[in-house]
């Protein structure tokens, strides 16, 4: 209840009439009305001032934006005017040059007309001379044909054939002479470098098989390894991917697999299981996983140790891992890591003898066979795949080319490439380094003999000295001495292009004449 209502109530109580109450009520309402009007007027003034200020700010903002737009348009117009002025000057300059060239051309054209007239007269005289010479030539040919009894075409063909045969025989003799001279001068230094390189590298032979023998103390352990109804041996084979052969061989278990890494994992896992004594499927899986990590760590450690021993730095970690993986890989019975180390040392020595960079040569020699230890199974040759791996891991172009070309899949671009190829052959083709399957060896010799026997005039062929020399016997009535030289050269080129072989093959062509008579 407000004070006005209280006042009205009090007045009504004292006077007891409605007139006074109405008077007071009306007066109070007028005062309140005046107060509200005053407050509304004040508030309206404030709002008016705010709106005026906002309008001024908006006006100033629009004015500034308009001035900025006008300024930008003015600058663009100025730039366009400048470009137009420059283009107009250029056009005027070109017009003046064109007019000058036209005047010079008009002068030159007159001179050309005079020169053309002189040339036409000289050409006419030359044509007349040519006609006279042609007549004299025809007359001379007729006299020669009458004297020799042959036509011009017949004489020409006979002359060409005689010159062709003579040039062919002289070319073959010249080629053989050059090749023999080059061979005599080059073989001496080449043999010296190769022999010196081989002498300075100590080599050893490591033979790997597809099986590993795991020795046990007693045959009682075989039953524990097999387990109830064979569950242990099945779990071990499933976890390692290795075939485990438990037979009557005393105190031995055979681990069979073509992957040496898997055989090593299986051998180490079996060793831990037998030593621990707890052999059951869950324990087998746990031990195999643990051994896999150990072997992976050993692979990386072997790669690092190899690069440190050879003094090769800056290799990508994945290349280091692949180098370590070579320890468990063999090629024709030769351990791949030992072979790569041997090739690296040979490359460094040979590069130093030839005045090249031995560090790059050693690096290329170590990496040349990394394509043989891939994590997946690519369909590319190992040299090409190794080149792609080296390119992927940012090796230098000369190293990449040496890796890819050491089996001639890629063209050689640098001097490192033939060094790696030669050192790979030295390490792989030396006696005792690799085991070769008898069937493939016999097939290679037979292919060599059949290739030479396919030439006309060849009667017999013999591959001797383990395929290092091919002797070809030809009929004396079918070939001349000059033909034998050409045959020897052709066979050597075809062997180089079509066959794969270690080292080099000597081709000897024998042509003999036998005279037989009987004393009666």
Give a written overview of the molecule:
The protein has 15 helices and 8 strands. Strand 7, helix 15 and strand 8 form a beta-alpha-beta unit. It is flat. The chain has helices at residues 3-15, 18-148, 152-199, 220-226, 231-240, 260-276, 281-310, 317-325, 336-353, 358-367, 382-392, 397-404, 416-429, 438-453, 481-498; strands at residues 211-215, 243-245, 252-256, 330-331, 334-335, 458-464, 469-474, 506-511.
Quick overview of this protein structure:
The protein is mainly alpha-helical.
Give the helix proportion (percent range). Answer: 55-70%
The dominant shape is flat
Q: State mean pLDDT (0 to 100 scale).
A: 78
Number of helical elements: 15
**Uncertain residue ranges:** 202-208, 431-437
- Straight-line distance between termini: 174 Å
Instruction: For the largest sheet, list the strands in their spatial order.
Output: 1-3-2
Report the radius of gyration as a whole number of Å: 51 Å
- Note the main sheet: 3 strands, antiparallel
Number of strands: 8
* Structural class assignment: mainly alpha
Features:
single chain; 520 residues; three-stranded mixed beta sheet; 15 helices; 69% helix
Topology overview:
Layout: H1 3-15, H2 18-148, H3 152-199, E1 211-215, H4 220-226, H5 231-240, E2 243-245, E3 252-256, H6 260-276, H7 281-310, H8 317-325, E4 330-331, E5 334-335, H9 336-353, H10 358-367, H11 382-392, H12 397-404, H13 416-429, H14 438-453, E6 458-464, E7 469-474, H15 481-498, E8 506-511
Helix pairs in contact: 1-2, 3-9, 3-15, 5-7, 6-7, 7-8, 9-10, 9-13, 10-12, 10-13, 11-12, 12-13
